[in-house]
Structures are given as structure tokens and as C-alpha cells.
Design goal:
Mean pLDDT: 82
Number of helices: 1
CATH class: Mainly Beta
Largest sheet: 5 strands, mixed
Number of domains: 1
Radius of gyration: 19 Å
Strand content: over 45%
Helix content: under 10%
Distance between the termini: 44 Å
Length: about 350
């Protein structure tokens, strides 16, 4: 399978999502002053002074020169501390935060490099280099290993998913390349993420509309593949259920929960707007979603079957939803809200909209 160029990493469905929210990448702002890139972490790291208040986050936006994309600007921040900023190559990505860590990848046309930024310690550690193109990567919760998705430098052929232990041996392949399938077409975007318990890695390979998902169990090495042309992007993975969007070209779009034991899908909401997987005040995983017209408070649906439904205090709020150019790690009881000034947050039990630096456990 051939992976499309980075400039096409957002297919029509994803672009429709951005448009429906009314927020482009240039308005995905974040609080605080800015500094240069974070310094390298010491070879023998010391314990950080203590956790920062506020949520760790990253934002990616294209760097344009005369209307042409020349690179990407990455901002990473945490709480009230000044944000770090770094200029990346056109082929670049960020993922997370996971445990306060943001994975950053960039490719200069000859070699890919991947680093992990620890937002609490305030430093960055180079993790990987490869002559293959590392298109996406994520760090294991706890930071013990890195998982990479690669494509060939010349033909952009899928090279599979690789596992790398920092400071260990060379990376080893843990998932083979995905076989071409005419029912899906050419892959545009591949993302990696974690189940809520951190024990399983999901790999989503999306064509123009539909996606195929593979789930790797880190305990026993087993792999589950879900290939249904009616399935779109992943919202999250909880226990034995995968939460996904339908294969839609825009919004509204159904949100589905797929039982991994039976493969049976259940419709959580047939006409949802943006959606994201969060934890409620009690720590239970829930899907937070809104209506396209933004006329009511977000709807909250238990992600695990049988959980008690959680409600959100009004007023109406537009859920920001999951997107590859922005990530934030929030404590239980919080979710993100779309706003023209940039991402905001609020609690399930408090209608007050807050900036990212105001988030506290």
C-alpha cells in the first residue's frame, strides 16, 4: 500500500470536520508566552521539581510562504509556563500528550528523526532516526517504548509498525504492512493511539473516507483487525470496545461502539457532531459529543457498556473533538470546547469556560 504525501494527510472527511467546527489551524491558539525549543534532557535525568498545574498540550500549524507550505510550526505547553516553539519540516507530526509526553517527528528529505518532549521536566530526548520515513509515532504510557509507523522513502510503500526501546537495540517490526484493499482505496492518514488502560495499541489506516483498524495487545502480541468500509476514524479504545466515527464525508456523522468480542456495532449517536473520548468526574471513560447546530449541552455517553450515563451542566458548548493537529491531556471531569479564540476547556459539572492553563485536577 502506498501512503500519500504529508500535504494530503487530512482527507476530505477530516477537512469537513474542521470546517464544520468553524476553527482552522491558525486559530488553534494556546495561552502563555513562547520560548525556543525545549533543551535536551540530561543523560541521567533528575526528578522534576514537581508537577505543573494546567494541562499539557501541543498545536501544529502549517508555515506558508507565498501561499505554499514550507514547513510546520509546533507549539508545546503546560499550564502557566511559557510555551515552547519549534519549526519542523513539511513532513512532520506530533502526537499525545501521553503521561505529559509529546512525541515529535520531522523528516528533512533524507532522514526522519523522532524526539519525546517531557512537558513536566521541560526537556526533549532524541529517540529515533531512520532512513525510512517515520510518518507517525506514539510513546507507551510510562515512556518505556516507542511505536512507529513507517513508509518507504522512494515509493512511500507501507513498511508496517515498529517498536523501539530507547537506548536499546534496533527497532523491530511488530505489525506487517497493510495489504491493499480496493474497498478502501489509497491510505491517506495513519494514526496510532492507546486504549484507556494502556495495554493495547490501535493503528488506524484511513483512505478518503473509510478506515481500517488494527489492535495490538501488548501482553500477548495478538492482533485484531477491523476492516469495514462503513467505519471511519477512531475516537478511542475502551476495555473490549472500539469507539469510531462512521465513514462520512462531513458532519453530522454517526458515532459507533464496536464490541471486539463479537464485532457487533452499536450506534451511540446517529447524528453527532465532533466527539472525543474523556473521563467523567468519577474517572469512567465517556464519549463527549455535540450537535451540529450547537443548540444544546454536549451529550455524554458511557464508552463501556453498562456504565451509568453522565450528564453535562449547560449551557450549550461546541465540543472540539479529536484532531491530528492538536492534542491535550486533561484530568477526569474535563473536556475541550471549540472557540474562535482557540481551544477552551470546561468541567462536566461546571459551565465555566476556562483556558488550558486554568485546568487543575
Amino acid at each position: 500500500m502506498v501512503e500519500a504525501r504529508w500535504g494530503r494527510r487530512l482527507g476530505p472527511a477530516a477537512l469537513a470536520l474542521v470546517g464544520a467546527l468553524g476553527i482552522g489551524s491558525t486559530t488553534l491558539g494556546a495561552p502563555g508566552r513562547e520560548t525556543g525549543p525545549p533543551p535536551d534532557c540530561p543523560a541521567n535525568p533528575v526528578t522534576a521539581a514537581g508537577p505543573s498545574t494546567g494541562a499539557p498540550w501541543f498545536r501544529l500549524e502549517p508555515t506558508l510562504v507565498d501561499g505554499a507550505r514550507r514547513g510546520q510550526r509546533l507549539d508545546i505547553g503546560r499550564g502557566r509556563a511559557p510555551a515552547w516553539t519549534r519549526d519542523l519540516d513539511p513532513e512532520s507530526f506530533a502526537s499525545g500528550p501521553v503521561g505529559g509526553r509529546v512525541v515529535v517527528g520531522t523528516d528533512d528529505g533524507r532522514r526522519s528523526t523522532v524526539s519525546v518532549v517531557d512537558t513536566e521536566a521541560g526537556c526533549s530526548t532524541p529517540i529515533a532516526t531512520s532512513t525510512d520515513v517515520i510518518r507517525h509515532a506514539t510513546v507507551v504510557p510510562g515512556g518505556s517504548a516507542l511505536y512507529e509507523f513507517r513508509v518507504g522513502r522512494v515509493d512511500r510503500a507501507d513498511l508496517g509498525v515498529w517498536r523501539r526501546v530507547p537506548g536499546g537495540r534496533e527497532a523491530e517490526r511488530v505489525l506487517p504492512p497493510l495489504e491493499p484493499d480496493a474497498a478502501f482505496g489509497r491510505t491517506w492518514l495513519t494514526e496510532l493511539g492507546w486504549s484507556t488502560d494502556g495495554r493495547r495499541l490501535w493503528v488506524s489506516s484511513c483512505a478518503e473516507v473509510a478506515c481500517r483498524v488494527r489492535i495490538l495487545d501488548l501482553d500477548d502480541g495478538s492482533v485484531r483487525t477491523i476492516a469495514d468500509p462503513l467505519i471511519g476514524s477512531v475516537v478511542g479504545l475502551v476495555d473490549d470496545a472500539l469507539v469510531v466515527r462512521g465513514a462520512c464525508r462531513g458532519l453530522p456523522c454517526p458515532v459507533l461502539r464496536i464490541d471486539l468480542a463479537t464485532g457487533r456495532p452499536a450506534v451511540l449517536d446517529a447524528t453527532a457532531g465532533a466527539a472525543e473520548l474523556r473521563r467523567d468526574v468519577g474517572g469512567r471513560p465517556v464519549v463527549v459529543l455535540d450537535r451540529i447546530d450547537g443548540s444544546s449541552a454536549p451529550r455524554v455517553i458511557p464508552a463501556a457498556e453498562g456504565d451509568v450515563t453522565t450528564t453535562v451542566v449547560g449551557p450549550a458548548s461546541r465540543v472540539l473533538g479529536s484532531r491530528p493537529e492538536f492534542g491535550v491531556e486533561l484530568p477526569p471531569g474535563w473536556f475541550t470546547v471549540a472557540d474562535p479564540t482557540g481551544p477552551l476547556t470546561r468541567r462536566f459539572d461546571d459551565p465555566t469556560l476556562r483556558r488550558l492553563e486554568e485546568v487543575a485536577p
